[in-house]
Task: structure prediction
Amino acid sequence: MSRPNALWAVPGALFFGFFAIIPLLGVVYLSLTEWKGIATPTFIGFDNWVSLVHDPLLGQSATVTAILLVGSILVQAPISLLLGVWAAGPQRNRAVLSSIFFIPLLLSSAATSIMWRQLLDPNFGIPAQFSALFGGSGNFLGTRWGAITSIILVSSWQFIPFHTLIYQGAARSISETLYQAAAIDGAGRVRAFFAITLPQLRNAMITSTVLMVIGGLTAFDIVLILTKGGPGTDTAILPYLMYSDAFKSYNMGYGSAIAVILVILATAISILMVKLSGYGEMTSTQEGL
Amino acid sequence: MKTRPNYGAGFAAVIWFAIVALPIYVLVSASVRGREGYLNKGPLSLISSPTLSNFSRVLTSGFLQFIGNTVVITFAVVGIVLVLALPVAYAVVRGTGWLNRGAFRLFLLGLAIPSQAVIIPVFLIINRMGLYDTLWAVILPTAAFALPISVLILTGSMRDISVELYEAMAIDGARSIRVFFRLVLPLTQSGISTIAVFTALQAWNGFLFPLILTQSDSTKVVTLGLFTFVNQYGADIPALLAGVLLSAVPILVVYLFARRALISGLMGVGGK
Result:
């Protein structure tokens, strides 16, 4: 009996099941109940779902979630890819600079958002110092598009280093002989980038983009600290809407219904990820490294 | 191969460097400046008459307690994750049968479960267990949600162990528990340090579980402490930013000493 039996996996699987899988089923049940956070949830059928479908905030929230998602990907993906390929180079100065580039991913979202909120403060932040440049009040967080832009800016600042790492790792594993062959054929740097680097980074692009989508779907702390969903409810993304319904108004059942929508979105995307990148095939030794 | 210098890329990298470094400069410089200097001259002005009073204001308002709580939570989470994830990864890589494949799929699925989506049932469970507003309320779910990625990284590094080594031990008649301690653990050290550092980072920076599952000052963690400071300090921005800097100091120290483990870990997260 030198091979482990299934008992080895039991404690970890049970622990994870208890705090993640059971809640996943639980949230579906809770979306069919009325519960104020104390006492016992009462079963009320589809009432929460009916009022959710008729809630104008849901459409607005889904729209702003999608805008933030697309905006974040458009900003983060190209910058991360270029920085990652750059950082993968063997030069010493690149290694030194990269170690500084990665500092933002060490900070918590809370710390990052608090820092940026002070930087963007219309009275005491950078806009105030350059008020002539910006004109007007410089109150970015006070307007809808200003707030959306600020959230994209802050999440890009925090998460680009992480995606850069993904691309850096992938770019390092591209075989040097491909580039040597291209050089012999007389291909320049730009040509080599489009003909070799980009196609070889396909898997990294899939992984990174999917992680951006899931990250964007759930960028809750940044919104809570930076804009509190405001101005008004202009930046109340789905997780924020869930949080304020469940833990501010104590409509736990209603919040659960929003959470179910989040689960469906995230699961659909991750199944797509498994299909596209072939994670599911990684079961035998030495494969999928 | 000799590489020609790439001026375009270098220029872009310098711009990105400024984007990263500028806010960090403001963070550090504001922390050591007096309140009036910051408010009157603005965040980008040069440091004059540096002071440490901001740090002492933050530290005397309960921040030490928050750091203590966060340290306890971080160590507990890393401990639980190591004890649970290592056997799972071993069973997934070396075990046979549908149960082990099922366990692997369970954790793959788990990667995609956002903690926000299950926070309401977790709140209910923690309440029913009588753990609300204790450090355990943060430790248990944080550890659970760190398991999928840890299992994934560990299975990757256990797959690197050559099959011949396993077979040699099997011929010697070693049982699975002996293989685990004598072969798997020693050869998985880099994977272990990777997930330890990565999990510690998650636990240290965690925000949602503390926000929902604790409420008193005695159980407050650093991130949540900063969040309450925002309202408490109002216009005392230097003190607030000093708190932000203090919250990151332990992580920055770890980064200095364990940069390789952390970076390879994060790279592994994306690459696997």
Chain B has a mean pLDDT of 85. Chain B has two domains: 1-51, 63-271. Residues 1-51 of chain B form one domain. The longest helix of chain B spans residues 53-94.
